[in-house]
Amino acid sequence: VQLVESGGGLVQAGGSLRIACAASGRTFSSYGMGWYRQAPGKEREFVAAISQSGDKTYYADSVEGRFTISRDNAKDTVYLQMNSLKPEDTAVYYCAASRFMLLLRTTPNALDAWGQGTLVTVSS
Fold first, then answer.
1. Which residues of the chain form beta strands (DSSP E)?
2. In angstroms, rounded to a whole number, what is the distance separating the alpha carbons of residues 124 and 101?
3. Average pLDDT for runs of 10 along the chain of length 124
4. What is the CA radius of gyration of the chain?
5. Contact 83, 66 (CB under 8 A)
6. Which pLDDT belongs to residue 26?
């Protein structure tokens, strides 16, 4: 599966942004999908994940209650709605795919596919 992110940009603190990840190549609905981010000088960290059918979602504590992950299997796309953004949310956001939800949440080096990333910058 190939993944392409879009929707990143510059937003003020407290604002909202929605980023998307479009998939192609394999059956999208057979993959759990997730979002990771990497800030300058920091390691990549898990942000959110959603199951193949969309009935289960998982979030990092740092974004719980502010970010919402969703997917549209008819459009082969996963979204990350980000509200109440903070400067510390500034990072390159990557989407990832895995057939196994546990790996998606815990083992980024074992995932099936990654997108190229989209930059989100939150100004104070």
1. 2-6, 9-12, 17-24, 32-38, 45-50, 57-59, 67-72, 77-82, 91-98, 113-114, 118-123
2. 35
3. 96 98 91 97 96 97 98 97 98 97 90 96 96
4. 13
5. yes
6. 74
